[in-house]
Amino acid sequence: MGSDSKRHIPDHVIFTILPRLPAKSLVRFKCVSKAWHSFINALNSDNRKLIFSTVRSIHSVDIGANINNMKARNLNFPLGKLLHQLIGCCNGVLCIVVQIDRPLGKADLVIWNPWTGRYKTVPISGVHLTEKMYGFSYKNTYGFCFDQSTNDYKIVRLVKREGITEFRIYSLNSDSWKSGILPWYIFPMSYELKYSATFIDRSLYWRIDHITDPKDRWTALFGGSSVILCFSLVDENFRVILPPDDVAKGAEFDLFDFGGCLGLIHCHARRRAHVDIWTRNEHNWTKSMCIPRLQELHNSLYLAPVFFYNETGEVLLHEKDTYPCRGKEVFYLYSLEKKTFRKFNIEGMEQFTFHIDMPYTPSLTSLTR
After folding, report:
1. What are the pLDDT digits (tens) for 8-23?
2. What is the DSSP string of 106-160?
3. pLDDT of residue 150
4. How far apart are CA 150 and CA 307, in angstroms?
5. How far apart are CA 320 and CA 332, in angstroms?
6. Which of 348, 346, 334 is CA-nearest to residue 305?
7. Cβ atoms of residues 199 and 144 within 8 Å
8. What is the separation of C-alpha 351 from the centre of its chain, rounded to a whole number of angstroms?
9. With CB atoms counted within 10 Å of each terminal CB, which end of the chain scores lower, N or C?
10. 275 with 320: CB under 8 angstroms?
């Protein structure tokens, strides 16, 4: 009895050691006890990062670090030498489309956990990425999401072919696809730019070009303005959402995750004006903030929010092109209270121009089903 107690390591010592271990070891140790399992799952819950993606690399930045000491770290994507583009991120798991053979249109959808290094590939066809692309080929767009009710990761792919738009839904649990066809008057593909969906609270949201009048295929509804296509995981149905009334007809806007709510960025850059940030709760839009324009910015640039520091009331912003929507390496902190800007650089970001950025929290999520 005495010898056993001498060999026992107190829990507080164990929980001091565990955070220092590599991810692969932590995955194994989750099965030791319920206490270890819970502790390891929560280990990185406050480790806030941002993902920045180019067509050849994926980088992360620790946004919880000292603002004056931020560094971009290459995540060393296993298929990084191939042309690829980031689709989405859920629970520390990334989804990336990777071009395997461009002439034949062959590609893989890769579901990858950067922290554990494990990934799964899902072959697809009809994909033609390019080195100088600003988004996906206009014939494809994607969404990546997690269904808590079934503990399942899903990929939704919209494919334009022969005058119709087909939707295909992949389930990681079943490792299979199912498909259907959107109504002909919903036209979700743009000709040059294509955004992947934003995932918020069991729904995917795309900004789409326009909705055609069902009674007259040559007439666009809502003045031909962009609208929002929503796919719900609850019933797996699509529906259309209109942007805020104050968003000018024909105006450009982006969608993003605003603290768990659907956020909309309305840019007035071409008029050298400001950026409005809207949020949607249930059925209503609310203007949450207005970010003034820096006079020294070029007409084609605006400041897009990347992250909100609730503790300090500051917004992390980066310069972004209105066309072709590429992020620049210049960042700002904007104080909502003082309405002042502070410019700074993130070490390593000057080496590339990124196309996609999104929040990311490392996790030990398993891809095994």
Report:
1. 677 666 766 766 666 5
2. EEEEEEEETTTTEEEEEEE-S----TT-SSS-TTEEEEEEEETTTTEEEEEEEEE
3. 92
4. 29
5. 12
6. 334
7. yes
8. 22
9. N
10. no
DSSP string, 64-121: TS-GGG-BEEE---TTTTS-EEEEEEETTEEEEEEEEETTTTEEEEEEEETTTTEEEE
- Say how far apart CA 55 and CA 362 lie, in whole Å: 22
Top pLDDT among 156 and 366 is at: 156
CA 70 distance to own-chain centroid: 20
Alpha helices in the chain (DSSP H): 2-7, 11-17, 23-29, 34-42
pLDDT digits (tens, 9 = 90+) for 114-152: 888 889 999 988 776 766 554 444 456 899 999 999 999
For residues 122 and 62, give the distance between their C-alpha atoms in angstroms, rounded to a whole number: 30
- According to DSSP H, which parts of 301-354 are helical? none
pLDDT above 60 (res 263): yes
Look at residue 192 in the predicted model and tell me its pLDDT. Answer: 43
Provide the total of helices (H) and of strands (E) in the chain, helices listed first: 4, 27
Give the H or E element holding residue 61. Answer: strand 58-62
Q: Which of 192-206, 234-248, 285-299, 324-338 has the lowest mean pLDDT?
A: 324-338
Closest residue by Cα to residue 238 from 158, 161, 171, 159:
158
The CA distance from 305 to 246, in Å, is 20
The CA angle 58-343-267, to the nearest 5 degrees, is 75
Total residue count of the chain as it appears in this document: 369
Task: Answer whether residue 1 shows pLDDT above 50.
Answer: no
> How many Cβ atoms sit within 10 Å of the Cβ of residue 214?
12
Q: Report how far apart, in Å, the C-alpha atoms of 229 and of each of 202, 280, 281, 335 are.
A: 14, 14, 16, 33
Q: Helix, strand or coil for residue 34? A: helix
